[in-house]
Design a protein that fits this description.
Elements: H1 2-20, H2 27-38, H3 41-44, E1 49-57, E2 63-71, H4 74-77, E3 84-89, H5 90-98, H6 108-112, H7 127-132, E4 137-141, H8 144-150, H9 155-163, E5 167-170, H10 176-187, E6 194-197, E7 201-206, H11 209-230, H12 246-263, E8 271-275, H13 278-284, H14 289-295, H15 303-306, E9 311-313, H16 322-347, E10 361-364, E11 368-373, H17 376-399, H18 407-421
Parallel strand pairs: 5-6, 9-10
Antiparallel strand pairs: 1-2, 1-4, 2-3, 4-7, 6-7, 8-11, 10-11
């Protein structure tokens, strides 16, 4: 199966080269770089995805920004996303930014007129970040260790301590165009080789694909070492309860999972996956886990897999049984649907028939995580994405207070993503 996907992707690369006028063979290394980064689960992070770009000259003159989005192979290779190739006339994108045509979200209608070829697939929401950096090759990622810095309340101070003067810190901007302009100015500063975007992720760049890939990996290694040096600081308010024993947990889940599938299947039947790994169990047994879970994702890109927040189910092992939990799941699923619909209506998220308001992640205190999706692949992606989010969230709270993207920020990303798919 993997071989067929690789061959099909190679044929698509060749077709895009021929249609868009890029040098033959130039896009294949770009695709390989994106795949290599995405295959590292820690680099792909809770987004389960990376974007890589190259600015290449066309045969007919002018530079074209080519972007590849690659999905993660997280946890067993079943979340392999399909590659997306997009080519944009760079001069037209820069002119549109100067003219203010890209100040509103989403940018898809404005960017559609600047494609290098009419049959080239549309570019991802991070397109403007790739376009403004004055370097040939750019990577945009959401690594776990780096997101711990980006999601901390004192992120700017921590980024300075970790990367010194080589990194620029950019506060969160609701407008992608405003953020892109700030990134362009920061990337042009002498000595700055990467940028940390608050609650959004990591941007690295270089003049060769090898150097760009190396810069991304080096940033992750440095952030990981910084977290390790910070030590095991008290986080998440301490332990609230002990996890249920393996046999007791298995018996409880056997009775509870049919209820979860039914409660989360208001629009369509759902497939569920269970995660009781040590990292997940440690999280759901801590005192501050309900508050942190409801705060939101580690990055807006995560909402494509897990929604903004999971459904939290309390458990008191001294007096609760499967019936009590089942009742809480049904009531909680109903409240979660109402909350998702309200957020979409109030802040302009995905509405109407495109909205599935059922929870995609259920966290049960002392038991673990249940991820749901319309297909096995979707359920697995939700489980992997929230598993990575727990790692980043745990590291962030060990450093400082966790600050998640809020509801309007998540809805803005959903609008951009929905516009990209239409």
């Amino acid at each position: 199966m993997h071989g067929r996907l690789t061959r099909a992707y190679g044929r698509r690369v060749l077709e895009m080269e021929q249609r868009g006028g890029a040098p033959i063979g130039a896009l294949a290394p770009l695709a390989r770089r994106a795949r290599s980064l995405a295959d590292d689960a820690e680099i792909a992070g809770a987004a389960l995805r990376v974007t890589s770009s190259a600015k290449l000259s066309r045969r007919l003159g002018g530079e074209v920004l080519w972007i590849v989005g690659a999905g993660s192979e997280a946890d067993g290779g079943r979340t392999r996303g399909e590659g997306a190739l997009g080519g944009l006339r760079l001069d037209r994108v820069h002119a549109a930014m100067v003219g203010g045509e890209l100040d509103d979200e989403p940018h898809v209608p404005a960017l559609a007129h600047r494609l290098a070829g009419s049959r080239v697939r549309m570019c991802p929401p991070e397109t403007l970040l790739h376009a403004v950096v004055p370097a040939t090759h750019v990577d945009v990622t959401q690594p776990d260790a780096v997101m711990a810095l980006c999601d901390a309340a004192g992120g700017e101070r921590l980024a300075q301590a970790c990367f010194a003067e080589t990194a620029a810190w950019l506060p969160y901007e609701m407008s992608g165009a405003a953020l892109a302009r700030e990134l362009g100015r920061a990337a042009a500063t002498p000595g700055v080789r990467l940028a940390l975007l608050a609650r959004r992720g990591l941007v690295t760049w270089a003049e060769t694909p090898e150097a760009c890939h190396a810069a991304t990996v080096a940033a992750v290694v440095l952030a990981r070492a910084f977290l390790a040096a910070a030590g095991d600081a008290p986080c998440r308010g301490g332990t609230a309860l002990a996890p249920l024993r393996t046999r007791e947990r298995a018996r409880l889940l056997a009775r509870l999972l049919p209820v979860v599938r039914s409660a989360l299947g208001s629009r369509r039947p759902k497939v569920v996956e269970v995660d009781t790994t040590p990292a997940v169990l440690d999280f759901v047994c801590t005192r501050d886990a309900p508050t942190l879970a409801k705060a939101g994702p580690v990055c807006p890109q995560q909402v494509a897999h897990t929604q903004r927040a999971p459904l939290w189910i309390d458990l008191d092992p001294r007096c609760d049984d499967a019936g009590d939990l089942a009742e809480r799941v049904v009531r909680g699923a109903r409240r979660h649907r109402a909350q998702v619909r309200w957020e979409a209506a109030a802040f302009g998220g995905c509405e109407g028939t495109t909205l599935d308001p059922d929870a995609r992640v259920v966290l049960i205190a002392g038991v673990g995580m249940v991820a749901a999706g319309a297909t096995r692949t979707e359920a697995h992606r939700a489980r992997c994405a929230y598993g990575r989010a727990i790692r980043a969230l745990s590291a962030a709270t060990a450093l400082d207070r966790f600050v998640a993207p809020n509801v309007p920020e998540c809805c803005a990303f959903e609008r951009a993503l929905a516009g990209n798919l239409t």
